[in-house]
Design a protein that fits this description.
By secondary structure, the chain is α/β, with parallel strands linked by helices. Helices cover 49% and strands 11% of the residues. The site of uracil has 13 residues, from helix 7.
Length: 276
């Protein structure tokens, strides 16, 4: 490990530190401080990519703050086989403007060697606060369906196509907004990194956003639902509805019917995940 000059020194981060603190808020200052830990340790490697990213992203944030506009560019996850490192890098993602609205990045969760990965759309209100995927009402119904399909949630990796909560205010409530194709594309490298590291046998794409993140905008869940498909991201992919669609059913009868169909899709996915 080199102990000579670390990258944040090369980037001139400490020299700019005072200028930046006059412009930016507390959380960004903390980001710089976290990046600058490496200076104190005088070690390059573990913090290297983070420091480069901090400096670049902080400069970018300052520019965007001035322009105050929506933007999206592809995220750049670190090239590593460590899920923890990717998760940490994602916590500071500014690839699209959604980081300004969300409380935090909600990264995927589950075993690194999970045979099955479940992908949803984006964190909701509860997930945004908790920092964990599928812990709100949609998560509860998904958990019940997983149990009914004989799948142990603790054995699957659960994530979202978009890692920040997109919402708009309505009174005191934060109302979910669907992410657009540019936001999905900006976040896709995080999903690719998760799938590259976990290497599941099978992915379940729940809802149009997840399915389109994998197969592109032309994909229709209604046409392809329940079929075992394949993509560059995973050898087997099953698309199904999003669990929140079950909560939106108009009456008990259709809720029950749709729930059973969702469980059947999960059961089929589980069987396909066990195939060699
Ligand atoms: N809906 C999603 O798509 N993901 C979550 O994590 C929660 C609700």
């Amino acid at each position: 490990m080199s102990r000579a000059v670390c990258n944040c020194m090369r980037l001139g981060l400490p020299r700019c530190f005072r200028t930046y603190t006059r412009w930016i808020g507390f959380s960004e200052m903390m980001s710089i401080a976290a990046g600058a830990r490496c200076l104190a340790k005088q070690c390059c490697q573990p913090w290297q990519h983070r420091n480069i990213r901090y400096a670049r992203d902080i400069r970018f944030r300052l520019e965007m703050r001035e322009q105050n506009e929506e933007y999206a560019r592809p995220a750049q996850p670190p090239d590593t086989s460590s899920l923890a490192t990717v998760r940490e890098a994602a916590a500071y993602c500014t690839a699209c403007h959604l980081y300004k609205r969300g409380t935090q990045t909600v990264f995927g969760e589950g075993p690194k060697r999970a045979a099955m990965v479940l992908i949803g759309e984006q964190p909701g209100d509860y997930e945004d606060v908790a920092g964990k995927p599928f812990v709100g009402p949609a998560g509860k119904i998904m958990d019940r369906a997983l149990a009914d399909a004989g799948i142990d949630r603790s054995q699957v990796y659960v994530t979202n196509a978009v890692k920040h909560f997109k919402w708009e205010p309505r009174g005191k409530r934060r109302i979910h907004q669907k992410p657009n194709s540019r936001e999905i594309a900006a976040c896709r490298p995080w999903l690719e990194a998760e799938l590259r590291i976990v290497r599941p046998n099978l992915v379940v794409a729940m809802g149009a956003t997840a399915a389109q993140a994998i197969f592109g905008p032309g994909f229709r869940v209604t046409r392809e639902r329940g079929k075992v498909l394949s993509s560059k991201l995973a050898p087997r992919v099953v698309a199904t509805v999003h669990p929140s669609s079950l909560l939106r059913q108009p009456d008990e009868e259709s809720r029950e019917r749709e729930y059973k169909h969702f469980v059947a899709d999960l059961r089929a996915a589980s069987r396909a995940a066990d195939e060699e």
